[in-house]
Amino acid sequence: MSETTTYTGFWQESPRPGILGWLLTTDHKRIGILYLGSLISMFIVGACLGLAIRLELIAPGRTIMDAQTYNATFTVHGVIMIFMFLIPSIPAAFGNLLLPIHIGARDVSFPKLNLLSWYCYIIGAVLAVASIFGGGGAPDTGWTFYVPFSTQTSTNVSLAAFAAFMLGFSSILTGINFVTTVHRLRCEGMTWGRLPLFIWTLYATAWIQVLATPMIGITLVLIILERTFGAGLFDAARGGDPILYQHLFWIYSHPAVYIMILPGMGVISEVIPTFARKPLFGYWAMALSSLAIAFAGSLVWAHHMYASGMSDLAILVFSFLTFIVAIPSAIKVFNWVSTLYKGSIELAPPMLYALAFIFNFAIGGLGGLALGAAASDIHLHDTYFVVGHFHYVMFGGGGFALFAAMHYWLPKFTGRMYNHKVAVIGWALLFVGFNITYMAMQAVGIQGMPRRYYDYVPEFTTLNQVSTVGSWVMALGLIIMFANLWRGMRSGRPIGLNPWGAATLEWSIPSPPPLENFGEEDPVVTRGPYEFKGVVADEY
Amino acid sequence: MTEHKHEPVPYRTFIQIWLALLVLTGVTIAVSRVNLGALNVWVALAVASVKSSLVIFYFMHLRQESRLFKICLLVMLVILAIFIGMTFIDVLYR
Amino acid sequence: MSIEHRDDTGDRFGMWLFLYTEVILFSGLFILYAMALAKFPQQYAEASHKLNIYFGSINTIVLLTSSLTIALAVSAIQMGRVKHCLNLCWVTVALAILFLVNKYFEWSAEISHGIYPGSEQLAEMGEGVTSFFNLYYFTAGLHGLHVLIGASLIGVVAVLTAKGKVTSDRYTLLENSALYWHLVDLVWIFLFPLYYLIL
Questions:
Q1: Residues A489/A410, Cβ–Cβ less than 8 Å
Q2: Is the ipTM of this complex over 0.95?
Q3: What's the sign of the alpha-carbon dihedral A6, A9, A11, A17?
Q4: Quick check: helix, strand or coil at residue A494?
Q5: Under an 8 A CB cutoff, do A230 and C118 touch?
Q6: Are C127 and C161 in contact (CB under 8 A)?
Q7: Which domains are assigned to chain A?
Q8: Domain range summary for chain B, segments of one domain joined by +
Q9: Which are the contacts of A431, defined by CB distance < 8 A and separation ≥ 6?
Q10: pLDDT tier at A91 (50, 70, 90 boundaries)?
């Protein structure tokens, strides 16, 4: 950003100069960039751990690490990817960058809390990393911290649990901020029917963050107290109930998967109409299905527990309710596809990521039905099929949506365009590598390979090798993608206001947007977010 | 941005509510000394709910807030009821 | 920010949302309580008798009264009676301290009887009683922590009021602290009958 000739918007404008202008900023765009930088860093750490797991599993027996290290590696991989990457990913990074602009506001309702939430995130991340290297050794419980093991192991579970607690707090603050902002700060003319779908999904997500996250807070606090006092809260011999731990844990952690995927769906709902040059099909169905997913997501948590020994009635009820979530999710997929129908489709990089999202999400979602049905779940529970499934929805869905968002909006926020050809190569490698890796996992899972095992029988070798090779292709794709974006953001060609020809508000202000977004006059909105008539794309 | 402000609630109202709360506390203690079996818990919860409604609507000024505040409270309570109620589906039928 | 932005309703709304998170936080413990009560009704009644109902009742009255004083403080500042408001805030803080002192004596008595999480003596009293006291200590402890936080908040707001930072025109800070304090009261309204009054 050293060139002074080009316009640099919020990158330069700040009440405080230099590094303090970033560390003490209350500007939603700067906080968004801080979040994006930190969570991509955590993603890279998590991805390296993931690659190490795959490398260990390339052959039966010991390959690169011992069993205890392996346990710690998948635990930390899970903790980082869930709590430090997926949950904050789109809401905290792109939500902060875009939510005020999308609704015509100058900032969020509570800018200082917004900064505080980033600091909570950083404290949580630092503590989590500290738990790897601290005295007792890295936590080895898996990211779910299931009792009784988590209350007995001598590793740094308390520290990791406290880290996750802080990250939860950060998530809650973001949620409170977003719900309030959407209610209070919409500009003139920005009716509920003119909110971009991305905002609808952020709004639904924010409600989950507010109403579900405290449950993980108390659960983690109880783990810490249990480890400190040894009271036996979840110890059946002392009147506790270990299955209740799983209930409390999943009451949050199931809605949490919608924190991860809903904003991703919002991104896709922005990208698809733009590159199909067509208004989104079924606006209200899309908007309400976001709320429906958020609500239905709070009804189904125990489908993670079919094999835990809970009551048969509960299995029946939760299995039935699980299928209800499929309805709003399918509404979304069908509406995206209907939007594409007879559209004037441009296969720009963000669109490619969006299409990949639909593909991956459909596979992951259908796998979810196999797991949601109690009968087939008993066979598939705790196998690699589950691992494959949630990577399909979380990484193939949430992750790809984040990459779509980065390709779609980063030019807006840096004022520069990346190289499209390289972006397509990166996308292709990522997409192919992704499908090889996780399809092989699903296959080996159906054959019966259990998850979280250090070793496996020789029959599973081929598919594990395929999966590991796939992970290398994927890693190559990630490297190309990040490098290309980084180069583009620093030295790409400058762009105008609206490179994609999109109709939402952020494309009507300079790239990068200035401090407080809209200059002197507050904007007045007179049309919907997907009315492309008269919107012209700038050359770049 | 100018704000519509709440009318100050007179001291009198608050003191009346406080007296009602004290009476209800007396009621809940008195009832708990009579053995009603499983009903005891439900009576205790009912009295506690009445007391909390008084606190929420008067002390916390919910009565004066817009409909949005009330709807949100309802949403929270529904979710809370789901969390507690659906856990019972497991525990009671194990 | 260069343009002064003010949205009192939004601030209150945000506070309400935060209170919801607190309710859910406590609800985790209440879920554990409800499930255990369904499992050990007799033992819970037996364990409940070991709690001192006088301490519990006095603390209930103390908290209800403190809720009244802080609600009055909000009315006072709205009517511009700063002096009233300050006095009422300090009375609230004093009541909060009284609550904690009470709690201290109550807990000391119980701990001296060997009733505390993880104690051998407690484990010998059976599963249900152990579970009751574990939950009692953790719930009341978490509530006590909230009393501490709430009282500090009100103390800070009182200082700000004395300095003229909280006025009859701009009192959201006091209002929100009061909301927080009422939540502390609300939790106790449920905690008291569920732990002290089971027969």
A1: yes
A2: no
A3: positive
A4: strand
A5: yes
A6: no
A7: 14-508 (1.20.210.10)
A8: 1-60, 66-94
A9: A352, A356, A477
A10: very high
